[in-house]
Amino acid sequence: MNIELGSNIAPRDIEKRIQNFWDSNSFWENDVNSAKKKFCTMMPPPNVTGNLHAGHALDNIPTDFISRYKRMTGHDVLWQPGTDHASIATQLLVERDLSKRGINPRDLTKEELLKHAWTWKNEYGGQIIEQLHMFGITPAWSRERFTMDSGLSRAVTKLFVQMHKDGLIYRARRLVNWCPKQMTTVSDLEVDTREEPGKFYYFKYPIKGGGDIEIATTRPETLFGDQAIAVHPENEKLKHLIGKTAIIPLTKIEIPIIADTHADPAKGTGAVKITPAHDMDDWEVGMRHNLTPVCILTPDARMLDIDQVPEKYRGMDRFKARAEVIADIDAAGLLVKIEDKTISTPYSERGKCIIEYMVRDEWFVDAVKLAEPVIKATEKGEIKFLPAHRYNLFMSWLNNIHEWSISRQLWWGHQIPAWYDADGNIYVAESEEEAKAQAPGKELTRDAAVLDTWFSSALWPFSTLGWPDETDDMREYYPTDYLNTGYDIIFFWVARMAMMGIYATGKAPFKTVNIHGIVRDKLGRKMSKTLGNGIDPSEIIEKYSADALRYWVSTAPIGQDIKFNEEDIKRGGKLLTKLWNASKYVLGNLADFDPATSKKIPVEMRERTDRWVLSELNKTIMHAHKHMDKFDTFNAREDIDEFFWGIFCDEYLEYVKDRFWAHDKYSDVSRLSAQWTLWEVLRQILGLYAPFVPFITEELWQKIYKETEGGETLHLTEYPVTRKEWDTDISGMDIAREIIKSVRGLRSERKLGGGARLEKVIVNFEVPSALYEVILPAARADTIEVNTSQSAAVDIVVKEE
Length: 801
What we know:
Elements: H1 11-23, E1 37-42, H2 54-72, E2 75-80, E3 82-83, H3 87-100, H4 110-124, H5 127-133, E4 145-146, H6 150-165, E5 169-179, E6 184-186, E7 191-206, E8 212-217, E9 228-231, E10 245-247, E11 254-259, E12 271-274, H7 280-289, H8 318-331, E13 335-348, E14 356-365, H9 367-379, E15 384-386, H10 390-399, E16 404-405, E17 407-408, E18 418-420, E19 426-428, H11 432-438, E20 445-446, E21 450-451, H12 453-457, H13 460-463, H14 472-477, E22 480-486, H15 490-505, E23 510-516, E24 519-520, H16 537-544, H17 546-553, E25 562-563, H18 566-588, H19 608-629, H20 633-661, H21 668-689, H22 694-704, H23 706-709, H24 733-749, E26 758-763, H25 772-779, E27 781-786, E28 794-798
Parallel strand pairs: 1-2, 3-4, 9-11, 15-23, 22-23, 24-25, 26-27
Antiparallel strand pairs: 5-6, 5-14, 7-8, 7-13, 9-12, 10-11, 14-16, 17-21, 18-19, 18-20, 26-28
Helix pairs in contact: 1-22, 3-4, 9-10, 9-15, 16-17, 17-18, 18-21, 19-20, 19-21, 20-21, 20-25, 21-22, 24-25
């Protein structure tokens, strides 16, 4: 064979060339009409606003390991790609972009802002998909979807209308999380609670008829919305005040003192101000006591211009009002003390501001009812989790789920398909025409709110396959087989997909969910913009290669966090170099070998070391299949590494050297036995590593094996399989290997070079003579001597020159 590999490997040059080759073909497209067994997985759709970050690597690269493996094991693979419209995040970025250009977003009509948003999406929205290509991943790119494209939007509307008919979506007046910056509701899962330094304010409420009652609060500015003061019914110190009337400081507003177990005698003063319109716990107390919630804040968190709020504070920002209220309470002689304390403070995840609790009419999903069939399906094993302990987390959340607020006061997103007449009656329909048919002769106005982004994302596994139509894709690929995603969205997305999937189709949307960990820095800290410890995968790829990054991803065991350290990335680079150099070494010994014409040596007639390496290869292939079939890419790659680095490079290549160097000592058949074995084993190594480091393995296969095998790409060839003929009698090899290992250790200990010739290897046990042919060339020794009185199991004697 006359195949030349360059002396130096240039991974990025190879990757760019190979990527262009893949992109110019349609290797990764599915074929719904194929008779092959189906395998379907969904890409967690990245935000259309997104830029590549470490999380995308963990979302997509392990899925690519599995998708490539499934193709090579004869499956028709559909890996569905696409992007999410990311309602809040996108509108925020569009508004920022407009502000930078001197345009006030608040001055625009809805149509004008949406025009800007679509322009922005079309210009920048595809950026994340282009960046994902750098990973060398293999979704069916031609099928890319967007959560606001026409087909998916139709599915969203259809499902909303059906759920409303079934009573699973409804409009209700509730206390909701409100982002004053973006002026929209956000779900509980979009609230980031932080422990921050804060203050507890202790002050007195006068009691009608004389006396006072002391309370402690973190939110004094909300006192104008107070509807009661609660005292625990068994609070010996304060229960005599139950039934009396208190007066809100700085006002003449009277409120009752009520008995409720929410007031903990051991906390604060034992008395709690109840503001149902601005506190979740207070809302529950208010419901129990039929209190009227009075909102005292505007949507942008300023004090309302209403009778309950003294004129001085009206229009004042909430935090300024807090300071003013406390100053005035102090001036009135009612302030007792101010205490520094650590306070749990809720922030809007996207708006980056402290949320307010507001009473609003909003749309909700009855998640409690939707969760019931998901719980049953998961208990029956229809949805499996990797690692298994994620099952407990998933089930715990479902068993304690609350209704889901789905309306958002934004313009970018799926507009809620509901219309109102002048009397406030609601008409839910798939179109305005259908709504008008429900309300003949009435003028209707459509609800301006849009749906929570996660509502449409929850439909991703079946809306992308053509639901609500009965398509071939739905029949062949649903339920999907595998989902790989992060634990940070197990509730945002995984649970909601399960709920919507079972409701819409009667089947759980996926069979196995792999919940991966997160990327941490080398100190173990979570990566964040605040710490400035994030990484840009594209920079890592340009510096070390995509294959090196992919190899690093493969070092994360199922479900465990992974630390980012450039030294670990370099390990992947070392593998690429080792594969390249091992291939060069093999080719260097195949100069007079041609697999098409060279006489084939049956395995049972090959040298012992040749048969041994094939036997070990068989074991590795078996283990790789076992692990990959369980989606355990970490242990599959570990076993492949152990074979390649240890068995093949460190041992076998050393064993066969002598057959190519000492021509006079070995027959042509012995050399040919080694050549056939090298040719076969290297090919299997490339196949085993193909899902993990696809670029370098493609390059080597193209150069070495393509002409012989035919075909276009390594990644559509068969994944290595075990062969019965590779399992032959290799008895005694463990003894030979231990002796050789000991000899190497003694050489190192005595600082003898690897080329130093040994007169003899002395052992204190009998060694079968059949093993001499293995031991002597590998040990570079002339003979083996048995000395049972020797204390050491193995010793060596250097040959004197």
